[in-house]
C-alpha cells in the first residue's frame, strides 16, 4: 500500500496590457489584460504544478521548467501540467487529486468553471477541483494588479 503524500503550490502573476489572458487552462479573449510571465503566465496551472511536484518530492516549477529554457518561452499552462504528470509517472507515483483556488477580481471564473476543470483535469490526468475568491479589495489581487492561485495536491 502506498502512503499518500501532500504538496502545496502558490503562484502569482501581474496583469499587464498587451498580453492575452490565460487562466485555469483557458483563454479569456475579452480580458483587457493578460498575465505577465515567461510562459503564458497561467498562475492556476503553475500553482498546480508546484503542488504536484512538491507532493512527489520532485522540486518545483522553477527547478524543472526554468525561465532560462528557451523551449518553454510562451508555453501553455496545460503543457506544464502534462510535463508534470510525465515526471510523476517516471518517478513511479500517481497523482490522486488536486484542489486549486484562484484569487483575483478577474476573470469571473464561475461561468466557465466546468470547462476549466475539464481542461485542467484532462491535461494532468487526475481530478482537479477549482474554486475562486476575491480579497475584498485588499492587496495586489484586490487592487486588480494581478492574480494569485494556491493549490494542494495528493500523490501516492
What does this structure look like?
This protein is of the alpha+beta class. The chain has one domain: 2-C-methyl-D-erythritol 2,4-cyclodiphosphate synthase (60s Ribosomal Protein L30, Chain: A). The protein is 31% helix and 29% strand. The protein contains 5 helices and 7 strands, in the order ββββαααβαβαβ. The strands form 2 sheets. The chain has a 5-stranded mixed sheet. α3 (77-90) runs parallel beside α4. The chain is globular. The model has no long low-confidence stretch (mean pLDDT 94).
Widest β-sheet, arrangement of strands: 4-1-7-5-6
Distance between the termini: 9 Å
Oligomer: single chain
Continuous helix count: 5
Number of domains: 1
Secondary-structure element order, as H and E?
EEEEHHHEHEHE
CATH architecture identity: 2-Layer Sandwich
User: For the residues shown, what is the average pLDDT?
Assistant: 94
Low-confidence stretches: none
Radius of gyration: 15 Å
Largest sheet: 5 strands, mixed
What's the shape? Answer: globular
The amount of helix comes to 25-40%
Strand fraction band? 25-35%
CATH superfamily: 2-C-methyl-D-erythritol 2,4-cyclodiphosphate synthase
Estimated structural class: alpha+beta
Instruction: Supply the CATH class.
Output: Alpha Beta
Would you report the number of β strands? 7
- What is the CATH topology assignment? 60s Ribosomal Protein L30, Chain: A
Output the keywords.
60s Ribosomal Protein L30, Chain: A, 5-stranded mixed sheet, 29% strand, 156 residues, alpha+beta, two-stranded antiparallel ribbon, 31% helix
Amino acid at each position: 500500500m502506498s502512503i499518500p503524500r501532500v504538496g502545496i503550490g502558490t503562484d502569482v502573476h501581474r496583469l499587464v496590457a498587451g498580453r492575452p489572458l490565460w487562466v485555469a487552462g483557458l483563454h479569456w479573449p475579452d480580458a483587457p489584460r493578460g498575465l505577465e510571465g515567461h510562459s503564458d503566465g497561467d498562475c492556476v496551472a503553475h500553482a498546480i504544478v508546484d503542488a504536484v511536484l512538491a507532493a512527489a518530492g520532485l522540486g518545483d516549477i522553477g527547478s524543472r521548467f526554468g525561465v532560462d529554457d528557451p523551449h518553454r518561452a510562451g508555453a501553455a499552462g496545460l503543457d506544464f501540467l502534462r510535463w508534470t504528470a510525465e515526471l510523476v509517472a517516471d518517478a513511479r507515483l500517481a497523482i490522486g487529486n488536486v484542489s486549486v483556488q484562484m484569487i483575483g477580481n478577474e476573470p469571473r471564473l464561475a461561468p466557465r468553471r466546468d470547462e476549466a476543470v475539464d481542461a485542467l483535469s484532462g491535461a494532468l490526468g487526475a481530478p482537479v477541483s477549482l474554486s475562486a475568491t476575491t480579497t475584498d479589495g485588499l492587496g495586489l489581487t484586490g487592487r486588480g494588479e494581478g492574480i494569485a492561485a494556491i493549490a494542494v495536491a495528493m500523490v501516492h
